[in-house]
Amino acid sequence: MPPKSPKKVVAKKAKKAKKVKDPNAPKRPMSSYMYWMQQEGRDAAKGKLGAGATIGEVAKEAGRVWGKFSDADKAKWKAKAAAAGPSK
């Protein structure tokens, strides 16, 4: 049996201090997807899945539906998002 190799000593990185979040800081505006989801997305997904669908199933189905939209279909929702304010 060959001899065991010596263990390597690995230096651990120091943890970064957690950034303090300003509770008074403004929130980012909603995206065009979120505007669509609030007004039509949930209903569209629940219509396909049925009333007994879980939140996760509804979110996945809504994402699939949104992904199939063309840029022309998304234009209405992008306009609402742009009117709400600049995004990062």
Automatic annotation (TrEMBL):
GO molecular function: DNA binding
Any one annotated GO CC term: nucleus
Pfam family, one: HMG_box
Protein name as it appears in the record: HMG box domain-containing protein
Coiled coil: none
Biased composition (Basic residues): 1-19
DNA-binding region: 26-88
Organism of this sequence: Triparma verrucosa
Chain segments annotated as transmembrane: none
Keywords per UniProt: DNA-binding, Nucleus
Region (Disordered) location: 1-31
